[in-house]
Amino acid sequence: MKLFRKKNDLYLSDKQPLTFWGVIGLALTYLILIGWSIVILWPLGQMVISSFNGNQDQYLILNGGAYDFSFKHFKFLFDETLYLSWVKNTIFIAIASALLTLLFVSFTGFAYSRYRFKGRKSSLMSIMLIQTIPAFAGITAYYTLHTLIANSVPAFSRQMMLILIYSAGGIAGNTFILKGYLDSISTELDDAARIDGCSSMKVYRLIIMPIARPMLAIIALWSFIGPFMDYLLPRVLLTNVESYTLAAGLYTLINNQYDFNQPAFAAGGLLTAVPIVIMFVVLQKQLVSGLSKGSVKG
Amino acid sequence: MNVELKNIGKKYEGRESFTLRNIDLEIEEKDFCVILGPSGCGKTTLLRMIAGLNSITEGDLLFGGRRVNKVASKDRDIAMVFQSYALYPHMTVYDNMAFSLSMRKERKKVIHDRVMEAAEVLQITDYLHSKPSDISGGQRQRVALGRAMVRKPSVFLMDEPLSNLDAKLREHMRVELVRLHKQLGTTTIYVTHDQTEAMTMATKIVLMNGGKIQQAGKPDEFYNKPQNIFVAKFIGSPTMNIIEGTMKKGLFISEDDLIKIKPTPDDAELLLAYEGKKVSVGIRPERFESGGKFGDTFECKIDVVEMLGKEKILYARLENGKELIISTPGHYEYISGEDHKFGFDIGAIHFFDTETEERIN
Questions:
Q1: Which strand (E) or helix (H) includes residue B60?
Q2: Which CATH number do you get for residue A281?
Q3: Interface of chain A against chain B, CB under 8 Å?
Q4: Contacts of B241 by beta carbon, 8 Å cutoff, 6+ apart
Q5: Which CATH number does the domain housing residue B331 bear?
Q6: What is the ipTM metric for this complex?
Q7: Residue that is last in its domain, among B234, B256, B285
Q8: pLDDT, tens digit, for every residue of A223-264?
Q9: How many domains does chain B have?
Q10: pLDDT cut 70: percent of chain A above it
Q11: Does any domain span residue B360?
Q12: Residue A225: inside a domain, yes or no?
């Protein structure tokens, strides 16, 4: 028994034991972290609670009041508003821009990582610099561009313009990220594949893409989330309430002081998380990194 | 298939000078040709040019008489084993080996037979369905070899394939590679910086330095008849001793007058033309004679004794501090700090022209 207790007292950590000031510092760190998480979690919690509270009317009342669990606000959302078509629009735009981004970035990332060409460095720098200009700055250009294209192709809608802006805007940053990841994959794999009979396209599709899948999954996820988060561009570019995305659509529930409905806004916000969570779960397996382990060396 | 290099040169984009130039080489069918050289001598560049991964700036590359300068790597009928193995990490061992054949749209049955055949030769049948990350370094090495074998190429190219293995395994794989080469009889071109690998495996060694071929030939020629001082010093461990001096009245006299050698009659005849000129003498550490019954002897102080078991390496110093490396059988007694007299095995002395560094005898 004594022996057992002695074993329990062994100091097993690799760090030096804490001093008095160390303990105080650690306590402070925890205090800050806990405070921070409360700041983030409390509003979220209030949103979830209020969206299910039948006693809430037009305004959100956060202090006290009776609580009555009901789906009233969700019902309102589906029956009285265009919520479903907003969801449909957003998912369409999100998926389309994620796919387009992946396609573009695959080409640019692979080219920048594997080929040496004139102007490689300077063009890489310039797309990085262009990235610093906010996408909204080009709003007049977008209008003109849309008018020009729509004149010759009438099917080109404002939503498609939005998809183009999102996916093109994602190219710069994501090219950098993917290039960095591909650089870490040994070029001997390319050489081996080429000797085995692959063309450049096949080298990417059959060898490099499966290895870079974790990074591609992250890029896809981020481009998918983008349209859910953006309010400004859809609000300005889309003219018809029916073609709104979620962020722009939900805003119509709280911007008119005569018929606004804050609890319904909260309920809509809560449901917005659902597609993103689903996307995350789907991609989770791909997000596991370290796939390229074992390809080279021992 | 024999491989012929005619006046091959390579200049990389954005470089001032040629990395390789005037490379002439003929590799016979079924040869195991080892391209040897210190790092940065252009040996990997040469191999990548033969593989078609780097372009050829000038000259002709002939495979069995056919010029292949502009032929894509996949159509050259070659297979390559890389230093890092370059196994596809997302495929199983079986798929890795089958990949090249399936890219060539072979029938499933043929692919399966070839993979199984190669796997049996290399004894990797047990883990055909593991991923490369789940098997050990030695096993990965075999898989990389197997991937090259299933193609049944006419030329094997290997780029330092053993450099990532530990010493014991490397020794083992060396023998295995030689056995495999005998069994398959495929022309093999093997790049390495390790002289032991070159000496033990090659039927033909090509030693390169500074973008030029220094000597090409059989392993024993390299050891016993090095063409110049670079080759003499590169091959053999410990390194050959080089002593600079001049020829005076048919005798070699070192710069510091401490060593005098009377060459054999055959050598003396060749050295006639060098009377009064600068000449370097090369002698391998194991060709010193202890005891001093061989005529020309010199005295030195033993500085450090390295005991290797079967031999002792003596780091000896002459009066003026010049170091000589002497190798003696392990059971001889030497103590550091002792003074000793050593002689030369006259028949085993290499004479070089100091100016051109070329061999004389």
A1: strand B58-63
A2: 1.10.3720.10
A3: 116, 186, 188-189, 191-198, 202, 207, 210-211, 291-298
A4: B282, B283, B284, B285, B324, B325
A5: 2.40.50.140
A6: 0.82
A7: B234
A8: 999 899 888 888 888 888 888 998 888 888 888 777 778 888
A9: 2
A10: 92
A11: no
A12: yes
User: What is the DSSP secondary-structure string of B211-243?
Assistant: TEEEEEE-HHHHHHS-SBHHHHHHSSSSPPEEE
Which range of residues forms the domain containing residue B273? 241-353
Among B74, B131, B136, beta carbon nearest to A195: B74
Query: Domain span at residue A121?
Result: 81-287
Q: Is residue B359 assigned to a domain?
A: no
Judgement on whether residues B245 and B164 belong to the same structural domain of the protein: no
Query: B306-317 pLDDT, tens per residue?
Result: 999 899 999 999
Half-sphere exposure of B285 (CA within 13 A, CB side): 20
**In whole angstroms, what separates CA B283 from the centre of its chain?**
20
CB contact under 8 A, B13 and A293: no
B13 neighbourhood in chain A, CB within 8 Å: 116
A196/B51 CB distance under 8 A = no
Q: How many residues does chain A have?
A: 298
Q: pTM, whole model, 2 decimals?
A: 0.80
Contacts of residue B132 in chain A, CB cutoff 8 Å? 294-295
Peptide bond into B238 cis (omega under 30): yes
